[in-house]
Amino acid sequence: MKSMRVLFAVIAVLCLGAIGPVAGTAAAAEAYPSRPIQVIVPFPPGGVADLVGRPFATALEKQLKQPVVIVNKTGAGGAVGMQAQAVAKPDGYTLMVALSSISVMPEVDALFGRPPVYKLSDFAPIALLSSDPTVLVVSSKAPWKNVADFVADAKKRPGEIKYASSGVYGTMHVAMEMFAHSAGIKLRHIPTGGGGPALNALLGGHVEAISGGPNVSIPQVKAGAVKILAGWGDRRLPALPDVPTLKELGYKDVEFYIWSGFFAPAATPEPVIRVLREATAKAVKMPEFISAMEKMETPIAYLDAPEFKKFWDTDAARLVKAVRNIGKVE
């Protein structure tokens, strides 16, 4: 019996030796990434996330040596796409480029006393890509020459001046309500399916104002279709040196940025996150990406994961306060 046990032991060792190289080869074949990657953009084409996400995906593809495909998953002010990312398999093959509104939705769910569609802890921040203060955009045919004119008119006609947004509690809605709260005015909110549709509503004369991203708005200024009255940043934009900030005009608690960030599901393995961080750091320096961002008048605001997380925490606290000021929107 003892000799039989020894024989079985020898056979087992030989079998392990035989399959070891095969297992090693299989593991090597699965080195990340080994197949195409999907990047969710939770908004329609034409908005900030889409305009930043597409050239970024092209640059990232060259670094990862795999196709990187943008998928627009729209609805509910971005919540549909963000929820899809939150529950995606954490293997590095479903990622997301989202906006600052990612911080808003959990607070909205809390406001209504319902289970959260997702939690901020569902996401692993990889990098900040851009960060622009939103700007107050009106039709070039509008009678207002400045913010003072806009506010005076709104006070004469409470609830009559219409503005479009990307959706209830989306970035464009929260920014405008921040301003309205500070100015003591009441505006009429017309939600749409995204930043692109909101801009189209303004250009088509269906609304009178939006709070938009500079990269989307400046080309329309150059075309003579719109004018920009103010910005929500802490300083004037280099691309718009003559446009004052709401802060310098005396309005309080009106700092707001439409930033775009790159995310993975929270449970994504650290080696995969490391690959993505390293690839992103190189992608944002590629001439093609730099050129695309310059054409959009959007400066790259790259922050690696640890710094991005700190930035995100600070911004999220500001947005939670804004949502509580807005209250329930039925």
Strand content: 15-25%
* Overall pLDDT: 89
State the distance separating the first and last CA atoms: 79 Å
How helix-rich are the residues, as a percent range?
40-55%
Shape label: globular
Strand order within the widest beta sheet: 2-1-3-10-4-11
Low-confidence stretches: 1-29
- Main β-sheet, in a few words? 6 strands, mixed
What's the number of helices? Answer: 11
Describe the fold and architecture.
The chain is built from 11 helices and 11 strands. 43% of the residues are buried. By secondary structure, it is α/β, with parallel strands linked by helices. Helix 2 (48-64) crosses helix 9, helix 2 runs antiparallel to helix 10 and helix 6 (171-183) packs across helix 11 (305-326). The N and C termini lie far apart (79 Å).
Provide a concise account of the structure shown.
This protein is of the alpha/beta class and 330 residues long.
Which tags fit this structure?
globular; 11 strands; 44% helix; alpha/beta; single chain; 330 residues
List the helices and strands and how they pair.
Layout: H1 2-29, E1 37-41, H2 48-64, E2 68-72, H3 79-86, E3 94-99, H4 105-111, E4 123-133, E5 135-139, H5 147-156, E6 162-165, H6 171-183, E7 188-191, H7 195-203, E8 209-212, H8 214-222, E9 226-231, E10 257-265, H9 270-283, H10 287-295, E11 300-304, H11 305-326
Parallel strand pairs: 1-2, 1-3, 6-7, 6-8
Antiparallel strand pairs: 3-10, 4-10, 4-11, 5-8, 5-9
